[in-house]
Amino acid sequence: MQTPPPNAFLTVDTAALAANWRVFAAASGPADCGAAIKANGYGLGAREVADTLTAAGCRDLFVAQWQEVAALGLLPQGVRLAVLHGADAADIPFALSINAVPVLVTPAQVAAWKSTGRPCDVMIDTGLNRLGLAPADALSGLLDNLEIHTLHSHLACSEDRAHQLNETQRRTFAEICSKIPARRLALANSAGIGLGAPYHLGLTRPGIGLYGGGQSPGIMPLQPVAALSARILQIRDIAPGACVGYGATFTAARPTRLATTALGYADGYPRALSNHGRAHVAGIPCPLVGRVSMDLTIFDVTDAPQVAEGSFLDIDFDLAETAAASGHSEYELLTGLGARYARIYR
């Protein structure tokens, strides 16, 4: 059966992705630099992201759940995959059948995993109060006779470099680590790498920064990785005073040419960008007019007369600007990208 042509494209710049990883690897100094590829590679395709990053030299990958492991297929020799949500007793048979390790996060998980005799990672909560062993549990003898490869913690406020909790967590983690044998220590996420060498330890775990979000940890800027484009389904000319879209939230002040595109909030394009988003054609800006609906978004293409039905608009998707305009975090923007995009890797 012939496949119908796509109505929207998500283009992933793999060269930019690899370049961003190298920025974090360089900033990590002697520490190993891993990569968080959970949530389907932050919405961009976990298999393709993993292939790109391992080819660039990354040897530590992180997903959140065991259900994410199968999509990665066979990883190159020497690449280590860790599952951040740990392993309950029900997960252990699957965990033992594949080449991935759990990051144990509860006393019950530790007790269940001990029976396997296999190495693992362990997460210590030092102030985020999310997943991880409480310091008292970690130091109670619970971890005795457990072969810990990497001992982790996670920073709560690393995006705010001046926040006092960063140093508090670092010191707490250092004190705990001095009493628990482990081959390697890990604390810093993307923003945490920018806090400097005391936070790098043996392994860093960049995430959003790999995909072009957040701040660069050094002088080299991060490159955008994801780009969107959408097919124009219809072009319509309206007179001054005509309204556009649900709720009639936009009224034309001039003779206006509209392009209705196959893009909507079902594709992860935020409804909050109604009357605020933008596309462009050959550098000509085309403002979004009216409300973003489930499957359709309308742009003013009056100043881009060369557009035609069936052609594509490039949708502005700068992460920082789109986050500010929509009220969505950069994480939400990426991981919310829907399944209807044809993904292109270049």
UniProtKB/TrEMBL annotation:
Belongs to the alanine racemase family. Substrate binds at R130, M294. One of its GO terms (molecular function) is alanine racemase activity. GO terms for biological process: D-alanine biosynthetic process. The modification N6-(pyridoxal phosphate)lysine is found at K38. It comes from Sandarakinorhabdus glacialis. Residues 225-346 form the Alanine racemase C-terminal domain. GO terms for cellular component: cytosol. This is Alanine racemase. InterPro entries: Ala_racemase, Ala_racemase/Decarboxylase_C, Ala_racemase_C, Ala_racemase_N, Ala_racemase_pyridoxalP-BS, PLP-binding_barrel. The lineage of its organism: Bacteria, Pseudomonadati, Pseudomonadota, Alphaproteobacteria, Sphingomonadales. Keywords: Isomerase, Pyridoxal phosphate. PANTHER family: ALANINE RACEMASE, ALANINE RACEMASE, CATABOLIC-RELATED. The keyword Signal does not apply.
